[in-house]
């Protein structure tokens, strides 16, 4: 067994061994550790940023694309945001031990479900160093142990952040071994990890389509995957033009390199002429390239300053992760829904409308983890939903969907309280 595999085996086993104790860690201990993490993150900005600068420069020189570079980058503001999310998690109700769906059976047995940790959660992720803190913090609060395997492009940043988390947990009395960070960046370890079902209960991939496909195909344990976002905005015939412009522009421009950015705009033909002309003006200023269908191209022909490109089939259903958006004119809400059904990824979709019936139809018929009415897709985020952070955004339907936080990384046990009942 080589050193890298030995590290993985040892740390995965230690994580598993910590699970019994982790299930009973008092909320006060978990919250104290999280508050310490938030404090140390702010105090350690210089060392975190130094490590991140080295990672960023190495990645830039290697030819990493802009979307991945943006995900890799840490700033003062982003570190403050990570620390704030950790404090939010500390302030949330501890899910472990929560009783729900309680009832009394006709025979007098008091029956309920009680939340319990899943066990060991492994995360395999690329580029984003914030994931190191987000996942370990959520696992800590929910009583789970975790095994973290980041990408080589963020190895220095991840090392510093994982050390902060580990030290804070040790200082506050969290069971030893509950948070494990794999230092080796040997790519072969991913395949090794995916076969360790004796130690790992759930694996979550955070990265590109290739990583997610690899994990789904090879994992011997349960997988929750998602994060690939082909997000649509449908501008209905009744839409308020000003509102629609704000929502569509925010969805594409506010942070174009993330999975909840709007990739495709579907515009009802009845308002397409007016709306697209206004949108072209707005996006000419921010440099958004518009991949137009033939009808939209005809409406904007000769429009000064707009970056217009004729769309091809591969533009529909594409996650651009840049200042590019596909644009299509549709005849009805039905056509918009059908387009989303065909090309969407099940992540986040929005309708901008003043019609109550149109909104209800969109919500009912669009199959996605998050469906919005008159709000930007950019809100699909654990922190924005008040969850503190997210362990991932699931586009699956089992066992969790959308931003996954504390409750989504617990299971439950049935608890039956009797007074001597026996079955006849």
Would you give an account of this structure?
The protein is α/β, with parallel strands linked by helices and 424 residues long. The chain folds into two domains: 3-225 and 396-417, Aldehyde Dehydrogenase, Chain A, domain 1; 231-379, Aldehyde Dehydrogenase, Chain A, domain 2. 42% of the residues lie in helices and 20% in strands. The strands form four sheets. Strands 11-10-12-9-8-13-14 form a seven-stranded parallel beta sheet, sandwiched between helices. Helix 12 (294-299) links the parallel strand 10 (289-292) and strand 11 (307-310). Helix 2 runs antiparallel to helix 5 (76-91), helix 2 packs across helix 7 (155-171) and helix 3 runs antiparallel to helix 7 (155-171). The chain is globular and about 75 Å long. The model has no long low-confidence stretch (mean pLDDT 95).
Fold topology:
Elements: H1 3-22, H2 27-43, H3 45-61, H4 66-72, H5 76-91, E1 99-104, E2 110-117, E3 120-125, H6 130-141, E4 145-149, H7 155-171, E5 179-181, H8 188-193, E6 202-206, H9 209-218, E7 222-223, E8 231-235, H10 241-253, E9 262-268, H11 269-286, E10 289-292, H12 294-299, E11 307-310, E12 324-330, H13 333-343, E13 348-352, H14 356-365, E14 370-373, E15 392-394, E16 402-404, E17 410-417
Parallel strand pairs: 3-4, 3-6, 4-5, 6-7, 8-9, 8-13, 9-12, 10-11, 10-12, 13-14
Antiparallel strand pairs: 1-2, 2-17, 15-16
Helix pairs in contact: 2-5, 2-7, 3-7, 5-6, 6-7, 10-11
């Amino acid at each position: 067994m080589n050193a890298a595999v030995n590290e993985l085996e040892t740390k995965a086993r230690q994580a598993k061994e910590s699970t019994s104790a982790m299930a009973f860690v008092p909320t006060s201990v978990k919250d104290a550790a999280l508050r310490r993490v938030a404090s140390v993150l702010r105090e350690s900005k210089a060392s975190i940023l130094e490590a991140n600068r080295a990672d960023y420069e190495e990645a830039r020189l290697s030819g990493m694309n802009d979307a991945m570079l943006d995900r890799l980058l840490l700033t003062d503001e982003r570190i403050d945001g990570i620390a704030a999310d950790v404090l939010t998690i500390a302030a949330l109700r501890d899910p472990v031990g929560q009783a729900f769906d309680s009832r009394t059976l006709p025979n007098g047995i008091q029956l309920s479900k009680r939340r319990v940790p899943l066990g060991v959660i492994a995360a395999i992720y690329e580029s984003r160093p914030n994931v190191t803190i987000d996942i370990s913090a959520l696992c800590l609060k929910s009583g789970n142990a975790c095994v973290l395997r980041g990408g080589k492009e963020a190895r220095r940043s991840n090392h510093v952040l994982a050390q902060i988390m580990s030290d804070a947990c040790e200082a506050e009395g969290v069971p030893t071994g509950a948070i494990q960070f794999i230092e080796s960046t040997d790519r072969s370890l991913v395949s090794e990890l995916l076969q360790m079902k004796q130690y790992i209960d759930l694996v979550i991939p955070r990265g590109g389509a290739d990583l997610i496909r690899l994990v789904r195909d090879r994992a011997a344990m349960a997988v929750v995957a998602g994060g690939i976002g082909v997000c649509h905005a449908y501008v209905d015939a009744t839409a308020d033009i000003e509102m629609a412009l704000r929502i569509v522009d925010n969805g594409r421009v506010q942070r174009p390199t993330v999975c909840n950015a709007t990739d495709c705009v579907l515009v009802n033909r009845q308002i397409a002429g007016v709306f697209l002309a206004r949108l072209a003006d707005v996006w000419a200023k921010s440099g958004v390239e518009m991949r137009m269908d033939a009808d939209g191209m005809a409406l904007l022909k000769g429009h000064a300053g707009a970056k217009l490109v004729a769309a091809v089939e591969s533009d529909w259903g594409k996650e651009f992760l840049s200042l590019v958006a596909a644009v299509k004119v549709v005849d009805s809400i039905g056509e918009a829904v059908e387009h989303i059904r065909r090309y969407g990824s099940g992540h986040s979709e929005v309708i901008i409308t003043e019609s109550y019936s149109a909104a209800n139809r969109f919500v009912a018929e669009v199959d996605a983890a998050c469906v919005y009415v008159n709000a930007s897709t950019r809100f699909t985020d654990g922190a924005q939903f008040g969850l503190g952070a997210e362990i991932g955004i699931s586009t699956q339907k089992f066992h969790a969907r959308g931003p996954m936080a504390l409750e989504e990384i617990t299971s439950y046990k049935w608890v039956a309280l009797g007074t001597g009942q026996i079955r006849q």
